[in-house]
Amino acid sequence: MSLYVDIEKRCGDFLLRVRFETENEMFAILGASGCGKSLTLKCIAGIEKPDTGVINLNGEVLFDAAKKINVPTRKRNIGYLFQDYALFPHMTVFQNIMCGAKDKDKTREYIERFFLKGKERLYPAQLSGGQKQRVALARMLAQNPRFVMLDEPFSALDNYLKTQLEREVMNVMESFENGGIFVSHDRNEVYRLTDRIAVMEHGSIVDIQSKHGIFDAPKTLAATLLTGCKNITRLERRKTGYFALDWGIPLSGVDAAGAPDTVFCYAGVRAHFLEPVCAYEREVENVIACEILRVIEDTFSFIVLFTNRAVEMKTGYAVMTYELPKEEWQKIKDKPLYLRVPADKLILMEK
Amino acid sequence: MDYSPLWISMKVALTATGVTFILGLLAARFVLSLNRMRLFADGIFSLPMVLPPTVVGFFLLLLFGKNSAVGQFFMRMGINVLFTWQGAAIAAAVVSFPIMYRTSLGAFEQVDKNLIYAARTLGMSEGTLFFKVLLPASLPGIAAATILAFARALGEFGATIMLAGNIPGRTQTMSVAVYTAMQSGNRVLAYRWVAMIMTISFLTIVLMNYWLSLQNRACMREGGNGF
Lengths: 351, 227
Description:
The structure holds 2 protein chains of 2 kinds. Chain A is α+β, with helices and mostly antiparallel strands. Chain A is built from 10 helices and 21 strands. A 6-stranded mixed β-sheet of chain A has the order 7-8-9-3-10-11, sandwiched between helices. A 5-stranded antiparallel β-sheet of chain A has the order 2-1-4-5-6, with helices on one face. Chain A has a 5-stranded antiparallel β-sheet with strand order 14-13-12-15-21. In chain A, helix 3 packs parallel to helix 5 (129-142), helix 4 (104-113) crosses helix 5 and helix 5 packs parallel to helix 6 (159-175). Chain A is globular, with a radius of gyration of 25 Å. The model of chain A has no long low-confidence stretch (mean pLDDT 88). By secondary structure, chain B is mainly α. Chain B has a single domain (4-221), classed as MetI-like fold (Orthogonal Bundle). In chain B, helix 1 runs parallel beside helix 5, helix 1 (4-32) packs across helix 8 and helix 10 packs antiparallel against helix 11 (187-219). Chain B starts with a helix and ends in an 8-residue tail after the last helix. Residues 222-227 of chain B have low confidence and may be disordered. The chains are: A alpha+beta, B mainly alpha. Chain A binds chain B through residues 42, 45-47, 72-80, 82-84, 86, 88-91, 99-100, 102, 122-123, 125-131, 139-140, 143, 161, 164, and chain B through 112, 114-115, 117-125, 132-133, 136-137, 139, 218-227.
C-alpha cells in the first residue's frame, strides 16, 4: 500500500505541515513529544480534520480539502494501535477482538494466533501489559486493515517488557503485508523496527532518509539530536577554515565535506567515535585537551564528561561526552586525556 | 393513614425518571456532537434547573392550557394533563431533566477519547458506538444521573402543585402531603411523611452505591497472572 500525505493543520499556535510518501514498508516518524506525530496519525485516520491538503491511500482519496472529500474514519479501514491500547474496559477479550473481526470464527482464530486462549472471558483490567497489547494488536489486525499505524506502543512500559513486546510487534509487522507507520520518540525502537525514518520537529518533517542515512548523516540539528548525538557545536567560518565555537578548536575536514558554496552551521560527533591520542600527538588536528568533569560508570561502558581545558574558560565550552568500553578506560584513566574528533565521523548540518 | 401520596409519588417519580432518562441521554448526545451552538443548546437544556419551579409550572400551565396548541392536541387525544397525575409526572420530568442531562453529559465527556477514536477506526457506526462503547463506558455516571434525577422528581413540589394541583388521592404527592399536613396543623402526619421521604431517598443512594461497587468488582478487578 502506498500512502501519500500532504496536509496542513493549525491548532492554536501550533502549525502542523507535513508531506511524505510511503511505499509498502514500515515507515517511522521520530520526534520529541508534542512535535505533532500523533496529530499526523489522527489526520490520516480521519479522527482530526486537516485545514488543507490531500491524503491518498493506494490511489484512493481519503481527504482532499479542495474537492471537499473527507472519508469518515470508520470507512477508511486503517488500523490504529493506541499508546494505551484503548481496549474497551467493559468488554471481555473476546468482545474486544470481535469489534474488529465482526465474526465469531474469525475472533477465535485471532485469539489463537495471539496466544490469548483461555483469556477470552477476562476484562482488560485483569490482563497484564503484554496481554493487553496482544488483544489490541489482534483487534486491530482482525479487521483486515489496509494500513496500520502504531502510536508509541511501548512508551509506557518498563524495559524488560518493552523488549519482549517489541519482538512480538516485530513478528506481527513482518507478516503484515500492507505496510504502515510507526511513531516514536525512541531512536533505538525506530531503528530496529523500521526501514525509513522521518524526523519531525515543531510540526514539520525536517529530514526523511533510510535509517542508515539518518543515523550516519542527519541533515538538521533536530535530526542529529533525536538520533542521540551527544556532542554538538556551533560552527563559525573563519578565513583559515571552520572553528568549533563550543569545543574551542579549529575543525579541519569540514570544508572538503560539502559543495563549495555550502555553509555549515553545526557539527556533531557521537560520543563513542572520539579517539584518545597520546600527549605528544596533540598537535595533530581536531584534538581537544580534556578537563575531565565527571566519570560515570554505565552498565557496559564508562561515560566521561569533559570540556576543553586548553583555552581560558571565557565563555565556557560545552560539556562533551566520551563513551568507551570499560577495559579501555582502565588503560588510559591515569594519563591526561586528549581526544581527537575524527573528520570522517563528523556530522555536519546546514541548519 | 392514607398511603395514596406514596403510590402517587412513586408513580409520578418513576414515570418522570423514565421520560427524563431517555430525553436526557438523547440531549446529552446531541450536545456532545455540537460545536458552535453548544453553549446555546446547553443553556436551553439547563434552564429548568435555574428557574424557580413555580416559573416552570407557570410555563407548563401556559403550554398545556386549553388555549395552547399543545393543550388542544392533548385534549383531542383524550388526555387531560392539568390536575392529573400525568401532569405531575410532566412537571417532575421537566424539573429533573437538566440534572439527568448535565450529569450524563459530564459522564460522556469523561470517557477516554481514545476509546471513541478506536471504535471509529474499527469501523463502528456512530449509533453502534453510542450503545456499545459510549453508554457502557459512562455507565457509573449515568447511573448516578438517573438516581439524582429520580430523587429530584420524587421531591418535586413547586411545578407539580401549579400544574397538577393538590387533590388528595389523585395528585397529592408526598412532598405536597407534607405541606398540606403542616398547613392544617397536623404535625404528626407531617413527621410521618418526612420520615417516609427520608427513608426512600436514603435507600435509593445506598442501593446505587451497592450496585456501583458490584460493577467495579466485575470489571475493574486488578491482577491476571503476569506475562
